[in-house]
């Protein structure tokens, strides 16, 4: 049977991030995708111009509807927005025992905030302990820990271990916000650390990279891969999607990555 994954996240009307990026990623990697909307955003490659939260009861109803009928093999959680949404998702997943990838979406690529200030503590309390894998970028990790942003590999590892101590089974510290010609993500688990590196690509079209990476990892877990293998395959997939991003020519700001780079070339 085909592997099945569920994304619980917000909608991006521009199609580059959020639910849209998640479902594209699942499909590109051969996984059937189901979805639960937590918010609707008016968004393009330049800005988020509006956000409307979905009612908590409706979020719970969506999750219940999917899990009562479809055998989901892995769940990815993205944008949650506020405390009520976090609590609704946590309550709905109280009996979920499968792999869960938590991407702590806090700020859009445009710089617009996507998580209320008072929701950080709720995220840490209700969902961090449920995460098979937490996938923060460096500013997100710092905010979760109320610390300075990591600047070295040693600081990244230290913060990853601190987030594990807060409850997550494993942490992928994403290095996209770091400097230098090589981008390195650091996986911190109970067994130690592993790094995944690739040459940094000179492009402004990186909208949706965090959503895409976490969804690609969830797709691997849904297909039964061990966590390090799922991260390695997702890292390679995202690198290729970023490498092909400039061929899409979508929008006038931070354009999306090319999720279907292996299936169809954008430039003809």
Q: What ranges have pLDDT less than 50 throughout 5 or more consecutive residues?
A: none
Strand fraction: 15-25%
C-alpha-based Rg, rounded: 17 Å
The total of helices stands at 8
Remind me, CATH topology of the domain at 4-134 and 205-247? UDP-N-acetylmuramoyl-L-alanine:D-glutamate ligase
N- and C-termini, Cα separation:
34 Å
Q: What is the CATH architecture descriptor of the domain at 4-134 and 205-247?
A: 3-Layer(aba) Sandwich
**SSE sequence, one letter per element:** EHEEHEHEHEHHEEEHH
Name of the CATH class of the domain at 4-134 and 205-247: Alpha Beta
Alpha-beta classification: alpha/beta
The description of the largest β-sheet is:
6 strands, mixed
CATH superfamily of the domain at 4-134 and 205-247: Ribokinase
User: Kindly state the mean pLDDT as a whole number?
Assistant: 93
